[in-house]
Amino acid sequence: MNEPDPTRQSRLIYMDHSATTPTHPDVVAAMLPYFTERFGNPSSLYTLAGISRKAVAEARGRVARALGASPSEVFFTAGGTESDNWAIKGVALANRHRGTHIITTAIEHHAVLHTCRYLETQGFSVTYLPVDRYGIVDPDTVREAVTDETVLISVMTANNEVGTIQPIEEIGRIAQDAEVYFHTDAVQAIGFVPIDVDAMRIDLLSLSAHKFSGPKGIGALYIRDGVNIDTFIHGGAQESARRAGTENLPGIVGLGAAIERATSDIAAHSRRIADMRDRLLAGILADIPATYVNGHPVLRLPGNVNVSFAGIDGEALLMLLDAEGICCSTGSACTSGSELPSHVLMACGVDPALARASIRFSLGEMTTAEDIDTVLSVLPETVRRLRALSPVKI
Asked: Which of 116, 327, 334, 348 is the catalytic position?
């Protein structure tokens, strides 16, 4: 692989915020002392350790406030994937005596899907619910899928590829009425979708700091008080003896600072990004024929633009845009390099050729109007060049 061209970095246009975000300078500043003078192990007893314990408690409180939860219900993890694994495996294994059936959807992140498939090898049955053309699961199908054996429903709050936002509150009510635990992967939603775990009847919720301008390698799992769930890592008393291991102190502080920033004014933040998203999408549709929008036209994350350009290869377009200093993706970062079409687009009924021709632009806090202008000046001609080389004529 070629080394990055340092002369191109000044004009880098980053539109892959669904994959990760830069850590905000204020978050970095909050973390720095906990790498150096405030480095104490929170589990120790002296004053230095007490400073660390206080910092962990303050961060836990910030996460709890952002979710409408109690601090005792927030557990720090290594990220969204671990949180999903703990929620699903932990509830399934702890409640095997009640039943061995799990309900999820066909468009979940692979952290959920692969965990469910693993549990199928352990004697559990899993129902993978279909979605409509926009990527929305019908709550009625959730209700109809519940059996006497069902112990968990897991439906993501917002999809990482097409940005579609699910009817979480209605699904939570269905789970509550059926006395079934409800988990949601909210990794993409924090900072864009207001979360209230009580109003939405959520029992378990996964999040990851690096999706909302926090550091990588730190996340959290909300576990409602009273949920019967297995300990995830044995070996110590950390995280109420449910997830052993010395705390990632700087990461926890960074998570707390980042989620407080991200949720301080969700409406204004979302409105700004949605305005730029709408301008980008309008420009694409006006200048590039045979373009198809993936995901729901309204119920979608404010920064998500997922489109398919008929007659091209998405990865080829990705490489040409990268040569112009534009960073975007063909879907989930966790499946980059896969030769298979996106499982999300396939579940939405998108033709395989169009699924392979898809590009995801995901805007964020650092996106500017100038970035939108640059993409709109580069993208149409780039698509035309690829189509001119394609055996499929548009």
From this structure: 334
CB 2 within 8 A of CB 323: no
* Active-site residue, 327 included: no
- 8 A C-beta contact, residue 361 and residue 15: yes
Tokens linked to 8 = 């191109």
CA distances, 19 to each of 72, 94, 99, 152, 326 (Å):
29, 32, 35, 27, 14
pLDDT-based confidence at residue 280 (cuts at 50, 70, 90): very high
Q: How far apart are CA 115 and CA 110, in angstroms?
A: 8
What is the torsional sign of CA 230, 75, 304, 372?
Answer: negative
Q: Are the CB atoms for 203 and 225 separated by under 8 Å?
A: no
Beta carbons of 161 and 132 less than 8 angstroms apart: no
Task: State the helix-helix crossing angle for 47-67 and 249-262, rounded to 10 degrees.
Answer: 30
pLDDT in tens, 188-232: 999 999 999 999 999 999 999 999 999 999 999 999 999 999 999
Greatest extent of the chain over all pairs of C-alpha atoms, in Å? 72
pTM over 0.90: yes
CA gap 131, 138 in Å, rounded: 7
Q: Could you give the count of Cα atoms lying within 13 Å of 391 in the half-sphere of its Cβ?
A: 1
Dihedral sign (CA 175, 176, 181, 186): positive
CATH number assigned to the domain with residue range 6-17+266-389, chosen from the 4 options 3.30.1330.30, 2.30.110.10, 3.90.1150.10, 3.40.50.720: 3.90.1150.10
CA distances from 121 to 65, 92, 100, 108, 159 (A): 38, 13, 12, 19, 26
Beta-bridge partner residues of 293? 307
Q: Which CATH number is associated with domain 25-262?
A: 3.40.640.10
CA angle 102/103/109 to nearest 5° reads 105
